[in-house]
Amino acid sequence: MSSSTNKKVLIARFDRPGVEGFAQLPEGLTAEGLEVLSAGGAVTRVPRGEIRAVCFIREFDGGETWGKQRVFLSRPKAPGLWVRVRFRDGELLEGIMQNNLLADPAGFAIVPPDPTFQNQHLFVPREAVTAVEVLGVIGSPLRRPKAAVKDAGQLEMFG
Prior knowledge:
Layout: E1 5-13, E2 19-25, E3 33-37, E4 43-47, E5 51-57, E6 80-87, E7 92-97, E8 107-110, E9 119-125, E10 129-138
Antiparallel strand pairs: 1-2, 1-5, 2-3, 3-4, 5-9, 6-7, 6-10, 8-9
């Protein structure tokens, strides 16, 4: 059983303005949608079909900043899968996700190209995407470190 906490989120939607507030994840995300508590205390349920991405943000600043930098300017250095997500409306977003595409049946957790900006990470529901393309595997242990060769002429100190 995973623990849930209230996080500051901005829900980017397809055809409507975003919704800012606090969401309890993962329990708040149901088959019907995601419940969000606004800063004023009103509870809103955003239907799953409207959600493009749930952005975990640092501060409420009144704008959808999740899409300002959507692609990496150079090859990322963080370990994981470098992916390109294609949304239902054709828009693209790149990010880094853990090396397990089947981790959560509800969607994908992605670190955006600039996590030092307003968005720390994103959750993209599977219903919002038409394709996920793996662009690279970063930090892959393809080459194993060479084992230390024991020199036969070397004496052990603490035998």
